[in-house]
User: Fold this.
Amino acid sequence: MPRWFARTPSGDPKSRSHLRVGIPRLLNVWSTHQFWWGFLTALGIEGEAIVFSSDTSEDQNRQFGKGRGTVDCCYPVKCGAGHYGELVFGQKRKIDIFFSPMIYTLPSFLRGHVAETLSCPRVMAGPENIKAGFIKEKDVFAENGIRYVSPLVSLGEPLIVPKQLYETLKDVLPGLTLEETRRAVHEGYQTLQDFNERLRAKGREVLEACAREDKPCLLVLARPYHMDPGIGHEIEVDLQVYGYPILWVQYFPVDPDLLGWMFGEDIRAGIVKSPFDISDVWPSSYSSNTNEILWGAKVAARVPWIACVIRLSSYECGMDQPTYTPIQQIVERSGTLFFSFQDLDSTKPAGSVKIRVETIAHYLEKYSTEIIEKKKASMPPGCPLLRDP
Amino acid sequence: MATATLQPYRAYSPKPFTKDERGQVTILFGGLHWRAERVLQAVLENLGYRAQVLPVATKEDLLRGREVADIGQCCPTSFTTGNLVNFLRSEAERIGKEEVVRKYVYFTAGSCGACRFGQYHQSYELALRNTGMEAFRMFLMAQNQLDQGAAIGDGLEINLPFTLGAAWAVLCTDVLQNLEYQVRPYEVIPGQTDQVVKESVEYLCEVFRNRPLRGKKWGSLLWHLTTGYFTKALREVHRKFAAVEVDRLRAKPIVKITGEFYLQTVEGDPNHNIHRWLESEGAEIYPAAIAVWLDYLMRLAIQDIEEYVGIDRRARLKVAALKTLQRVYRWQYDRLRHALGGQPPALPDQYELRRLAAPYFHHRLSGGEGDMLVGKALWAYHHKKAHMTCELSPYSCMPNTMSIGAMAGVVGKYPDLLYAPLEIKGDAEVHALSRCQMILTEAKKRAQKEYEEVLERTGLTAERVRGYLDAHPEMKKATYRVRRDGVVGTAANLVLDVARRGGGR
Assistant:
């Protein structure tokens, strides 16, 4: 019914196809980019006209972000000046809209089982902070004919997302209506879900292969933006070279059979209420990425073939800091190897990473069989990863 | 490399604090300014609890906090964890660990926001474990619930009499603190203001210790909203201040204190004693009222619900109800400040702060003080409330660094806004204070220039104004309210006040 009475877009969505939209490949865009892709293409923006900035690099910062920093903080936020500068100054074809969402809450798979799924305060406010470096002397966006758009979006609360995005975009996209925004938001969530499910299915395949062959794999516990080669420095890639499959907590399979096997006993004992409940280890479960990392630690402690956990954390990460001890404890008490790369910054400490990667590979080679056996013995029978497909 | 399996890790879960223990167990708390802490202690005693304020945190506490908890934690947490641990250690030496664990519980504010502040149960837990006091009971209280029942055992009932008592204690000591900071820089007899404040706080403690209890729900609420009990007490405090003689013709810059909640509130080592230091450097302080924070919490709740207007049918009603509550709260604050002769200023309008900050910082960005730091700096600037703003930002404070970054855009647009963001980390005091001093020097020049311009504009001289004041001794009392009229400084406003009265001609 509301659709019948909705205002028809005065402008054909096709009229938006000429617009080029630049999105900084930054912070929680790393875990929500598929939403933005689905959303913007549903609004008539051509896929080729959605431009993401490059992976973070020191060169990017030198070339485009120099002199634009406003405050000293963690590198994942600070490097934003380079991303912003690249989209403004470094495009062969100029962008029309600079789209930098302030993501307030995240659509985490833990939502409903934890207290909240908020972004880190620095991450959610990052765009305001980085923008200040581009307007403090003169408005660089306006000077370059670029419309700066930075909606605050509660992606963890789908009901209010259309309203939030419509309010920001109605003056930017010709003929946009609330109803059209709703449909585009739905499309965005669908695209994100499809992508996540594809990667989780791939993760399950990896785990099943490890279980079948009794071989170890590694789980990375980190924030989504540590997937950025300039932030996480591809430490997990260096480990993969040794032949160990790598899984990221963000894309760990969440199939009911697997979760039931891992957490069934705890649920029956009343320790947790559901497989996604982390209150037994982390009562103040407000931060979305923190929650997922804690949950990942619990998973790693239970899956026998995860023989090693790699923890990545950036220098001055205030959200990670209180979790150092519990995560290490959760993982190590299960007998799983735990290695932490803390204080990651702009420069890759290649030498020390190499030595540590060699150490990790050595320990895996020496202990992984024993670890897998001990963990298998401590878990209930009937692991669904071992069932015939 | 250990590969043995151990018992699974479990989060800290203290044994409940029960009603039966009330007579023997002392509640420890702290983290505010001393006036509020003392009166809060009286509120707890009024309700039948044993309560004790932790000593003001010191640099030794900072070092202890860094030693027993994670080194990467923000500066206020190092101070507060170290403060608790040092207190417990000294008590353990005196009466033994088992007795400390039995005798004390610690209550502190929790958080439901984005800032890691809400996750610091982990740091406290680590500190307690590293001190060998895992069994010590520590509880976090939510800041956004008036009535939390007995979620942490029935030992401390966070019900309306408790919450309202605490709120009124904060409001009364806020207005008292504001008056104190208006008076001390101009006192004629050094130390007289401190003496009056000390007497006033002790008097307020008595008032709150004898607060009548009117039931646990609506009766209590109604009584607090309508009673003249607290305004009468503050009028008595006002009378005490009348004894202080002031010389307001000294041109001093007004420095508005903003920043992270703990650092802007405490007075001591955690913020390099910045209030006293600024006064000793010749400034008048515009302190940060805790009441503004409570007002902001209400705005946050309203903003959350506003998002659902048009989606949830009850959202408009909830917004209206909360806005009414906010208006009632501000009215109560006004009642209390008027009992002090109207000298403490009104609370800044939260929606104006939001509007002012909007081009630089989104109002929904939460954690820390959100958009308030940007909003307050602009508010003080536009409304001529202060010559400069000194923002106290803890080392590695996550939300604070974001608003400081956003302030780059504000200062770009308003280059004459004097803004001194100080990173406070306990050590490096000289750096922080010298940075502040640079901005303060400019603020002093402005205050002096403004004073001279007002004299010139009114055709008065300092001697003639002084002569008029001598002839009107009521204007030399601390309780005389100088009308504020288009200029910032107290001395300049006093000259305008005298001119308006036709004085000195």
